[in-house]
Every structure is written in structure tokens, then in C-alpha cells.
Write a structure and sequence with these properties.
The complex is a heterodimer of chains A (149) and B (255).
Chain A (H helix, E strand, L loop, with lengths): L2 H22 L17 E11 L6 E7 L7 E7 L3 H5 L13 E8 L6 E9 L4 E3 L19
Parallel strand pairs in A: 3-5
Antiparallel strand pairs in A: 1-2, 1-4, 2-3, 4-5, 5-6
Chain B lengths: L1 H29 L5 E5 L7 H4 L6 H9 L29 E6 L2 E6 L4 E5 L16 E7 L2 E7 L6 E2 L8 E2 L5 E8 L4 E9 L8 E9 L18 E2 L4 E2 L18
Parallel strand pairs in B: 4-5
Antiparallel strand pairs in B: 1-2, 1-11, 2-3, 3-4, 5-6, 6-9, 7-8, 9-10, 10-11, 12-13
Classes of the chains: A alpha+beta (149), B alpha+beta (255).
């Protein structure tokens, strides 16, 4: 590997680190994130039920298979930032379609219900969709994939 | 003779008017123009009580720090108050927009703030009417726009109305902003806030904005009929998991 290639790699890593640091910072919300456990993140894979595109927070609803649940599925809810903020991160009201399979990383609710604050979604082709906001422990998505759909 | 004198006077007048117009146009063209949308570069700038505490009285600072976890003590109208200006024009959740027109700079944001800044040479009145955004006049010092604002509604909340624990800014407030480009896509606000009923000294802080390529404004609104995150009747935070009424059924075959 040439010196130029090594330098480029270092610069790329530095840039990605910078992006992740910016994303990891807590952002202003109209409420605190006290209901979320920011000390750990969880992941679930399921089928998008609805992208609820509204103020003040966008919610992602997800059906997650659970053979012991009535109907064979649990319904999860994930809070995210406002539409105006998410648009700047590559989101739109159509970015997630009902029926699409995604894996959602989230900060769980402290009360144990199925849901939490959205950290990021990974699509079946590996592309990621970062969330914004949340309790902020540095677990936020490190890579921006604008215009993911 | 009279006719000749009038003709000369007329020529002089026309020439003078043209000269003034050319001068005014040249002045106008020489002024900076950062029209468009801007977003706060770093949300930490808003974590004021944590990273750059304002000169609040200790009890008020403690309230600002602890209120987000105890919403029941917060201002019950905070999500539905009209946008007020208490030194911060927005920028992260809502982009800020600058509009430049002759004699005036207008600053808006996506949650409804409109600040009309007159840059036509007028001076601030000594007894301005109290309004949610105050009365603002500006002037140029080189390429820096200096904006002075007085007449802010004493009930306007600091740092902003939606912030849990926000505090009325009080009377006799004067805010001076020095706004200048620090690069093609970077805009700096240097803000001094004098609020004798709120602060123990003048508060001075910088806020950096970056240009946001944006074609359409979006609405940022905390005053909504159904907020999954906040119960207006009990004034407490929540995480409402009532499914949307038109939620499609789960898939028939497991994924």
C-alpha cells in the first residue's frame, strides 16, 4: 500500500469518526429521554408495519415474529427525531415501505415494553438508515447512508 | 434666463438622483447576502446548562438542569406558545432561513419564528411595544450584520419555550447579535444577552450554523393533537404505544 493510499485510509477513518461523534451527541428534544435505557442497545428483525411520519416525532412500527404471541407477532414501536431533522439525514416519508424486512437497533424502554428509541435500521441489502436523537451513549449509527431508498 | 437656470437645475437634480441611485445600488451589491437555510452545526451548543452555563441564579440553573426529568413542574403551555425570541433563533430541529430585501433582513425558522430586522437606518425606540420576537434593527459593520433587539415579551421563555424548565426572560432585555460569514457555508452568531431579571451578568456565546441545502421548508411543531411522547393532561412524559388506527395487519407468512 502506497503512502498516499495509507493517508487516504487514515483521512477516511478520521472523517467517519467525526461523523459518528457528531451523531452520537444528544440533541435537543421537546422532552427528555428518561424513559429509555441509554446504557445498552438491542436489535430486532421484523417487517415494517408503518412509518408514522409526523411531528413532533417520527415513529417506526415493526412486526416481529413471536410464535407464542397472539397472531404470531409482537408489535414494536420506535421513536425517532422530527421529519425536518430526519430529512437532513436522508429520510423521507416513503423511505421505509410497509412489508419491508429490516433490523432495528434501538435503546430499549426501561419499562420493558416492546420498543424504544431508534438508533438505526439495517436493510436486507446491508444499507443502513441512521436515527437521530435518543439518550446518547455513543451507540448511534456510525455511518450515514443518505437517500437509502 | 429663467428657462436656462431651470434647465441647469433640472440637469443637476436628475444627475444627483442618478448618482444617489447608483451609489445605493453599489452599496446594496457590496453587502453580504447569505440568503437560504442554515442549521446549527453542533447540538451541544444548546446544552447550555451543561457545557456553557449562562449566568443564571443558582436556583434557576438547577431548575434548568433538572426539569427535563420532572416534566410536571414545567411550563404547561410550552409546546403551544407562539415562537418567541430569547436569543436563539433555532437551527437544529428546525432550519433557520435568511431573506434579504432592501432595507430589511428577515429571519424565519421552520417552527414559525419570524424576525423582521430593519436595516434602513432607523433607531430603536426607547419604549417599544412588548412582543414575542421583540423589535430589531440592524446595521452593517463591514461584512458583519449587527442586530439589536429590545421589547421582548417578559414572559418569553429562556432558552426557548419548548425547553423543559425554561424561565421567563423578564423585563429590560437587550440582545445584540453580530452575524457574519466565516466561510462560504459557515455562519457565526456572536450573541450578547443582557437580561437583568434573569442573569447576574451579560451572557455571551457563539453559535455556528452551516448551510443546509434545502428546497422546501418543513414544519416543526410540538403543539400537536396527539403526542406520543407527552401527555398534556398530566403534563408527564410517556411512550404511547397505541397503534395507528389504520395499521396494516401483520404478514401472513412469518419472515
Amino acid at each position: 500500500m502506497s503512502i498516499t493510499q495509507r493517508l487516504n485510509r487514515v483521512l477516511c477513518l478520521a472523517a467517519l469518526t467525526g461523523v459518528s461523534l457528531v451523531l452520537a451527541q444528544p440533541v435537543r428534544a421537546h422532552h427528555s429521554y428518561i424513559m429509555f435505557d441509554g446504557s445498552t442497545s438491542k436489535s430486532v428483525t421484523g417487517t415494517v408495519a408503518r412509518l408514522e411520519w409526523r411531528n413532533p416525532h417520527v415513529f417506526v412500527w415493526l412486526y416481529v415474529r413471536n410464535s407464542s404471541a397472539p397472531g404470531g407477532y409482537d408489535l414494536y414501536a420506535f421513536e425517532n427525531a422530527s421529519p425536518a431533522v430526519l430529512v437532513r439525514m436522508g429520510w423521507s416519508k416513503d423511505v421505509l415501505a410497509a412489508g419491508e424486512t429490516i433490523t432495528v437497533e434501538y435503546w430499549p424502554l426501561k419499562d420493558g415494553r416492546n420498543g424504544g428509541h431508534f438508533v438505526k435500521a439495517t436493510r436486507s441489502d446491508g444499507r443502513t438508515l441512521p436515527g437521530v436523537g435518543g439518550p446518547g451513549t455513543g451507540l448511534t449509527s456510525p455511518v450515514i447512508t443518505p437517500g437509502a431508498k | 434666463m429663467i428657462r436656462q437656470t431651470c434647465a441647469v437645475g433640472y440637469r443637476i437634480s436628475v444627475t444627483g438622483v442618478l448618482a444617489c441611485c447608483l451609489c445605493a445600488c453599489a452599496t446594496q451589491q457590496a453587502l453580504p447576502d447569505w440568503s437560504g437555510w442554515w442549521g446549527l452545526d453542533n447540538p451541544y451548543n444548546l446544552e447550555i446548562s451543561r457545557f456553557q452555563p449562562p449566568p443564571l441564579r443558582p436556583a434557576d440553573l438547577a431548575k434548568l438542569r433538572t426539569a427535563p426529568a420532572r416534566d410536571v413542574e414545567a411550563d404547561p403551555l410550552r409546546y403551544c406558545r407562539p415562537r418567541q425570541f430569547a436569543g436563539y433563533s433555532g437551527g437544529f430541529a428546525e432550519s433557520v432561513e435568511f431573506l434579504f430585501t432592501p432595507g430589511r433582513v428577515t429571519l424565519t425558522n421552520e417552527s414559525g419564528l419570524i424576525r423582521r430586522i430593519y436595516v434602513d437606518g432607523r433607531t430603536l425606540t426607547t419604549e417599544p411595544e412588548e412582543t414575542n420576537t421583540g423589535t430589531s434593527v440592524g446595521h452593517w459593520e463591514g461584512e458583519t450584520l449587527v442586530v439589536e433587539t429590545v421589547g421582548i415579551n417578559p414572559e418569553a421563555r429562556y432558552p426557548e419555550s419548548a425547553y423543559p424548565g425554561s424561565i421567563p426572560i423578564g423585563k429590560r432585555v437587550r440582545i445584540t447579535e453580530r452575524i457574519a460569514l466565516k466561510g462560504a457555508d459557515t455562519l457565526e452568531f456572536d450573541i450578547e444577552t443582557i437580561a437583568p431579571e434573569l442573569f447576574t451578568a451579560a451572557d455571551r456565546r457563539k453559535r455556528i450554523y452551516v448551510r443546509v441545502p434545502k428546497q422546501f421548508a418543513r414544519e416543526v411543531n410540538f403543539c400537536v393533537e396527539f403526542d406520543r411522547s407527552f401527555d398534556p393532561t398530566t403534563r408527564t412524559q410517556r411512550f404511547d404505544m397505541t397503534p395507528p388506527v389504520d395499521l396494516p395487519p401483520p404478514p401472513k407468512s412469518p419472515n
